[in-house]
């Protein structure tokens, strides 16, 4: 085991600091959980969990999560997605450093129709970079895996050229992660199973096209599926990642594990499958379905424990006020604590616990 890398200032990391974080994960043999958020409550729960785990963390927004952050009352959905993402980014920049850990700020799946959303966020980061020397986000994702690979990589190349100028990274997808994630993708039962496994030749194409432009990571498909799914629909094959690493290394005589991989659709995966994927260069694993459930689960128990408080402000029998029970801060805090527990579990499973490189 090599010595840990240099320490970084707590808060959102971008540019060289982001690359330092990624390299440290791969060198030390662990990955960071990437937690999808939709509100300040879910953001704060994720940050609290990272703090308690002494782990760095990736916080990300889907297009729907960004829209919800802005408010569903905004009628212009396209604008709400951009405004919500910017609002979330500013909240995270403001509070993250107070939790004493490093945070990667990322956005999740954006298919062809959502490229304008990504470009709107890049516009905001370009303005922020000009004003402060740093972008709003660490990275964005383009999921063009349903497009022909030439079209996929052409759009990725165009976007990465913009991102590299402002010290940002791009996550791409090759092969199709099964299931559906906030409107992107489709049910695994109607998908050509061959698309669920990325070929090393496709990864080599991406390396040849993008590596000279800027930093990129790859969401390669190795049988993973979004959400909780019926066992047997697909078979995880993490060895596909190793084959891709070796293929690029042999063709271009690179260092060992030259590619930075991410693991989508990790819900329900075994500890052994996760560990194997991490050993092949995965530095990031998405966690969404399980944290959604963890956040929501306490609501039912809370309402069952205080049923009258959700029907009356004052007990109609004895006049007892119920304000302390229906106060949203009371039950939302229970949701935060439950989600934080699940994120801590993810940190532990990925080996990230105790491995923050933030300065004390």
How would you describe this protein?
Residues 179-192 have low confidence and may be disordered. This protein has helices spanning 15-28, 40-53, 63-70, 77-95, 115-132, 149-164, 200-210, 239-252, 271-279, 289-305, 323-326, 328-349, and strands at residues 11-12, 32-36, 57-61, 102-107, 139-142, 169-174, 179-181, 184-186, 216-220, 261-263, 282-287. The longest helix has 22 residues, at 328-349. It has 360 residues and is an alpha/beta fold. It is globular, with a radius of gyration of 21 Å. The strands form two sheets. A nine-stranded parallel beta sheet has the order 1-4-3-2-11-10-9-6-5. It contains twelve helices and eleven strands.
Report a brief summary of the structure.
By secondary structure, the protein is α/β, with parallel strands linked by helices.
Name some characteristics of this structure:
9-stranded parallel sheet, two-stranded antiparallel ribbon, 12 helices, 11 strands, 46% helix, globular
């Amino acid at each position: 085991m090599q010595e840990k890398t240099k320490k970084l200032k707590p808060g959102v990391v971008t540019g060289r600091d982001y690359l330092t974080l990624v390299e440290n994960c791969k060198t030390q043999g662990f990955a960071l959980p990437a937690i999808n958020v939709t509100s300040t409550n879910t953001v704060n729960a994720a940050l609290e969990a990272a703090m308690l785990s002494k782990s760095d963390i990736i916080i990300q927004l889907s297009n729907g999560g960004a829209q919800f952050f802005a408010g569903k009352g905004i009628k212009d959905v396209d604008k709400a997605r951009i405004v919500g993402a910017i609002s979330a980014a500013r909240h995270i920049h403001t509070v993250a450093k107070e939790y004493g850990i490093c945070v990667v700020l990322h956005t999740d799946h954006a298919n062809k129709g959502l490229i304008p959303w990504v470009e709107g966020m890049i516009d905001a980061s370009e303005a922020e970079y000009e004003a402060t020397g740093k972008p709003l986000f660490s990275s964005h994702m383009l999921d063009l895996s349903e497009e022909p690979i030439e079209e996929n990589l052409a759009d990725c190349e165009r976007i990465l050229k913009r991102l590299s100028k402002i010290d940002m990274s791009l996550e791409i997808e090759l092969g199709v992660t099964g299931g559906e994630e906030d409107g992107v993708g489709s049910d695994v039962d109607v998908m050509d199973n061959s698309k669920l496994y990325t070929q090393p030749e496709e990864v080599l194409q991406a390396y040849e096209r993008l590596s000279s432009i800027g930093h990129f990571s790859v969401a390669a498909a190795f049988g993973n599926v979004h959400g909780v799914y019926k066992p047997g629909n697909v078979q995880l094959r993490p060895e596909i990642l190793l084959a891709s690493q070796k293929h690029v290394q042999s063709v271009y005589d690179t260092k060992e594990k030259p590619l930075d991989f991410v693991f989508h659709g990790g819900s329900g995966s075994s500890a052994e499958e996760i560990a194997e994927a991490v050993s092949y260069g995965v530095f990031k694993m998405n966690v969404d379905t399980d944290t959604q459930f963890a956040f929501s689960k306490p609501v039912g128990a809370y309402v069952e424990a205080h049923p009258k408080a959700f029907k009356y402000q004052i007990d109609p029998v004895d006049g007892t006020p119920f304000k302390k029970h229906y106060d949203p801060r009371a039950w939302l805090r229970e949701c935060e604590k439950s989600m934080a527990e699940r994120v801590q579990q993810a940190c532990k499973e990925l080996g990230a616990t105790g491995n923050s490189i933030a300065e004390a």
